């Protein structure tokens, strides 16, 4: 009913009473003899057969954003105007299907989020097939050996899981528009553990890309060997930096280091916050303005 009586409806979110929105569109399309046209731009459908995808693409020609499962990647190509794709892999390896889709249709994608991956995606493959990506969330591997600064030239937001330092290094050096970087360190598929992330990685990356002009948020959420030196390097090199975390995971940082860093931020009147043990530092005073009556 909502689909019929709200002509400008763009999205219905996810599941509705344990069914997909796509099922409702299918029923309506059959009722209208395939002539149904909706203004939907966003769709969540986790049971997307090729036949269903064909009907949905005709009924929702403006569809630009899709959430589906990895098992249905072979159907996603029916939606020719997609710019945002979220794929839930349910901890099953559908990497051949993903790569096949990206090779054929990745040129238009601006947002790609991969959920519950067990396989890593090669960052060079993404760069070659998805040059317009602005937002990325995925488990990645590999480095970049192409033209400097040209890996993902439009990337702004990046939330990744990595097991090798070369991937993090590639993102810090070769994504010139990057504003928001969140990293979780995670063992790769080969059982070799996570490579050591230390001050040398940050120092080397900033030596190759001395002034990441757009970087505002840098968050490394896993245990690593970074120290206060990395914080100082980031502050010195990133003029737009506004947030660094999660410093309680950085084993080389002590409470006294945090106190000194927070005091330096205050003394230099910097617009920067540090995340440490659930707190934002330095504390900011909030001035409450009370209207006179």
Would you give an account of this structure?
This protein has 293 residues and is of the alpha/beta class. The protein has a domain of 162 residues: Leucine-rich repeat, LRR (right-handed beta-alpha superhelix). It contains nine helices and 14 strands. The strands form two sheets. Strands 1, 2, 3, 4, 5, 6, 7, 8, 9, 11, 13 and 14 form a twelve-stranded mixed sheet that branches. Strands 10-12 form a two-stranded parallel ribbon. A hairpin with a 2-residue loop joins strand 13 and strand 14. The protein is elongated. It starts with a helix and ends in a 12-residue tail after the last strand. 33% of the residues are buried. The model has no long low-confidence stretch (mean pLDDT 89).
SSE map:
Blueprint: H1 2-5, H2 21-31, E1 42-44, H3 50-59, E2 65-69, E3 84-88, H4 95-105, E4 111-115, E5 121-122, H5 123-129, E6 135-141, E7 157-162, H6 165-174, E8 180-185, H7 199-208, E9 217-220, E10 224-227, H8 228-237, E11 243-245, E12 250-252, H9 255-267, E13 273-276, E14 279-281
Parallel strand pairs: 1-2, 2-3, 3-4, 4-6, 5-6, 6-7, 7-8, 8-9, 9-11, 10-12, 11-13
Antiparallel strand pairs: 13-14
Helix pairs in contact: 2-3, 4-5, 6-7, 7-8
